[in-house]
Amino acid sequence: ARRQSGSRDPSPPANAVPPTAFATMPLAPTTSPQQTGSRKRKADEAGAGSSASWGPGGAATPENGEELLLSKKQKRLAAQRSLLRYLQSREVGARDGTGARDFEAELRAYAVHKLPTLLTEHELALGTLNKVFASQWLNARQVVCGTKCNTLFVVDVHSNHITQIPLLGDGAPVLARNQPSCGIHAIELNPSKTLLATGGENPNSLAIYQLPTLDPMCLGDRHGHNDWIFGIAWMSDTVVVSGSRDGTVALWRVDPDMCHRSIGWHNDVGFPMYAHISPTETEIIPRANTSSTNRKVRALAFSDKNQELGAVSVDGYFHLWKVESTLCRLVSFRLPYSRENVCLTYCDELSLYAVGSQSHVSFVDPRQRQQNMRPLCSREGGTGVRSLSFYQHIITIGTGHGSLLFYDVRAQKFLEERASASPESSPGTKAKKLKLTCGRGWLNHDERWANHFGDTEEFPNALYTHCYNWPEMKLFTAGGPLPSGLYGNYAGLWS
């Protein structure tokens, strides 16, 4: 109006809303004369556009208008990625797939560093069972375990209730010597968590159970192993590999229709029936590279990313096979530390194997001809690394001295205690390695203990097995006394 009357045209005030900003605002109806706020409030609201500069002739430049829209979009995305927004969405059951999954992945990456420092132990009572060698989570409150006394059981970590699972017996009488002290050394669930593989009543046989009922499905007792099974790894939902002390790796295929056929099979006394199967392929650990008398397979780990199977043998060698329709051996080489290589794990994110030995954790990268990662010393007085697990780039180490250690592979250092890692700690203070020590467990003070260990009041429990339940942020640990002659057990829930 001032331009039309020829009056002076002053430059726009600094806090005026640029014309382009109105393009994003809804127009108010002209028929509503009602005033909804004071002039001062409206002037303050109009001042929100003061960040946009004015171009020639009093018009906002397109670049500044885009910056205004971009800043609003960034604020909106930041609000959507906040912890509060994530928890609110989860509470009402929102199904926003990608955003929630990405944010949950970030939370887990943060938790993998912080969770170990917050864990506290609740010890579980296992009665008079002897040494837990293997364990896996079945659901949010149940863990299935195998012991040295050849017992398969499920423990409820909330109520401490224990349910024993019947073992599967061979179809023909076992002619070999009785081996009751071997026990169950491996328990593995298939990717869809519908089948469980472990040892049978005869420790040389492979038993398959259905989940979640734990009904028997089949037993690999025909033309299989001649010695104890120490390692098991699933290649897919229906293909599983077992490794034995007889120096062989056997590949088994489970017929999916077998599950439906086995339902309702019972013998005259009411026990469930199950099929008896044979391996489709058996690979022998090469004699040219290893001792012919000590080629015993001790542990297996499968890389789903590369479709490769890794194995460690007692003589200190690492073996790698390509898994296709058959097993094709790629390489065998000696590890830097060859004494008591008893556990093996694999990290998909880093494409890295980790092997636990008497005093070290050795890292194996199959892509590199020369292994450049220096081994990690467990610093536990030679009691050995007894269990390993990877989550992202953090490796959890269960030792023979009853402690848990946590190592960051990327940073190449152990996680530290909260007091050491806090900003308030003085610069000269030496960082203290985080170490969680398990409880006392139960030890049988029998005649052997009195004759050979009576002077020692208590023994630390070797952590032969541990497994995480990451959705619930819980860790299950179990084991028993390290000396082979002692009888006892330990189990604990860390949360």
From TrEMBL:
Residues in DDB1- and CUL4-associated factor 12 beta-propeller domain copies: 115-495
Keywords: Repeat, WD repeat
Matching InterPro entries: Beta-prop_DCAF12 (IPR056151), DCAF12 (IPR051191), WD40/YVTN_repeat-like_dom_sf (IPR015943), WD40_repeat_dom_sf (IPR036322), WD40_rpt (IPR001680)
GO cellular component: Cul4-RING E3 ubiquitin ligase complex
Keyword Cell cycle recorded: no
Domain of life from the UniProt record: Eukaryota
Record family assignment: Belongs to the WD repeat DCAF12 family.
Protein name, entry field: DDB1- and CUL4-associated factor 12-like protein 2
